[in-house]
Design goal:
Helix 1 runs antiparallel to helix 2 (25-48), helix 1 (3-21) packs parallel to helix 7 (137-153) and helix 2 (25-48) crosses helix 4 (84-98). With 194 residues, this protein is an all-alpha fold. The longest helix is centred in the first third of the chain and has 24 residues, at 25-48. It has a domain at 3-123. The protein is built from nine helices and no strands.
């Protein structure tokens, strides 16, 4: 599943948790948890471990890290009354379910079923995967949905940040970053047109 689809599921999980506990921060934390496995495992597996594992579903796609996160979250909730780490764990669990990790038992139960096997992906696999993701219309839909929901749910915080960005010296950096984003989106779009 693609990154922003995971993020959308994390937002929905976070909304439910926030409604139960009355803390809007759970939305952002569940969303972070839903994308965290890919944000950590993809670069780790395809760049740093390219010579050995070369796979993007390794440690944070497994039950070991999820279990440790749940245990730490339960302890934090029990002793401090904070639900944040449990919201992250709920997002991570949704990621594993949506990726169907039970079909990859060696990675899912790592290290209990042995070492991670080597996968023969090409050197450019990560870059090609990023480009494929940017070319997916559903990812753009999820981008606008997630952005819209976060803009609505965190409108006061965003208004404060935007007030600071619009004032010098940040306005030039903000405009440059926005222009580079649109330029990158156009280049990717043109690459995949027939």
């Amino acid at each position: 599943m693609y990154l922003l689809a995971h993020a959308m599921v994390g937002v929905l999980i976070g909304v439910v948790i926030a409604a139960i506990v009355g803390d809007r921060r759970a939305i952002a934390l569940a969303t972070l948890g839903a994308v965290l496995p890919d944000l950590i495992d993809k670069p780790l597996g395809h760049i740093l471990l390219a010579g050995t594992v070369n796979y993007g579903r390794i440690y944070f796609h497994g039950l070991t890290i999820l279990s440790l996160t749940v245990i730490a979250g339960l302890l934090l909730y029990h002793y401090r009354g904070r639900i944040g780490l449990l919201a992250v764990a709920a997002g991570m669990a949704s990621h594993q379910v949506l990726d169907g990790m039970w079909r990859h038992p060696i990675e899912w139960f790592w290290p209990f079923l042995g070492p991670l096997p080597h996968h023969g992906y090409s050197e450019d696999f990560l870059w090609e995967a990023i480009l494929r993701e940017l070319a997916q219309p559903s990812e753009w839909l999820f981008f606008f949905l997630v952005t819209g929901l976060f803009t609505y749910l965190y409108r006061r915080e965003l208004a404060n940040v935007l007030r600071r960005l619009i004032n010098p010296p940040f306005h030039l950096a903000f405009a440059t970053a926005l222009a580079l984003f649109f330029l990158a989106a156009m280049v990717v779009g043109l690459r995949f047109l027939p």
